[in-house]
Amino acid sequence: MAIEFARERRDFNFVLILSGGNALGAFQAGAYEALNEAGLEPDWVIGASAGAMNGAIIAGNDPAARLAKLADLWRPRRGRQPLPSRHLGRTIEILRRSAAAHWTMTAGRLGVFGPILSGAGTPAIFETSQMVSNLDTLVDFERLNRGNVRFTATSVDIESGEDVLFDTDRDVLGPQHVRASAALPVAFPPVEIDGRWLADGGLSANLPVDPFFASPPAIPTLCIAIDLLPLAGRRPRTLGDAATRMQDLLFATQSHRSMTRWKDHYQRRQGENLPGISFLRLAYEAPDTEISGKAMDFSPRSVGDRWDAGKAEMERLIDGLGRFALPIRKTGIAMFDGRTQKEMVA
User: Fold this and answer.
1) Gene3D superfamilies annotated for this entry (predicted)?
2) Which of 43, 76, 140, 296 allows an S-S link to 104, with CB 3.0 to 4.6 Å?
């Protein structure tokens, strides 16, 4: 059974990679809920942007507290939950999501970002200082830096264009490091750390697989990468469809190229008897009611839909790992599509 697979077979290392995607990050929170319930906890979490926020919460809390903290980030409003979006007609649902995204662009997201009311010259639409105090309540940074789960957040030097990694294996991280990973221009201002002005890690690699493949664990490893923007999609039929598809392709194609490049790299090194890597990519397959501004739709209904979708997709993935006994490779590399569990061809 899948739960037995998750809880008992720990003769391998488990790495969780989380992409950026702003409001779409609720999908990752739901996916983690399924992992948590199955007892499959990560040894290393790598995140960019929203994935860095989710990753810091996972790595910076006791497993028993992680879901509540994720819910505080994504579902802060208590009380009766709205009906799922499937109970609304498609046109009404698109209008609802559009209105929600427009509201976020006007008022921001409490605890994460808000409109700049003063401070002329700030090169951004929103301020993110409130993210620091919110992260202080959501993440135990002492545990993050000294706990059993390694955590890596990615960012980009906005002046040099160089990738900048923050890793608890060598750095002491605080809220500002996570904030820097989520500092997407033009929406959010860059963050200064040690004299460098840093921006969103998703600008360089929205699905941050490079830190993992550049220095994988020394034992066989299962890696699950949760990507919030899909590579494949239908042909656009409206301007809104075209804008959504452009956004997905801008980020998903860079992820695909990175995975292809690393798979080729490891296949060329097959004779070196390197520890095996079993890599699964699980992508958020957005419903056709998502809009071009989906990353700014933080409405409780949309967040709940994405959370539920993430949990359901990860439950299917874990069940497949158990039922089909997908091997944790002792040597070599294999890449699988997390939805179909078929091997990806580079």
Assistant:
1) Cytosolic phospholipase A2 catalytic domain (3.40.1090.10)
2) 296
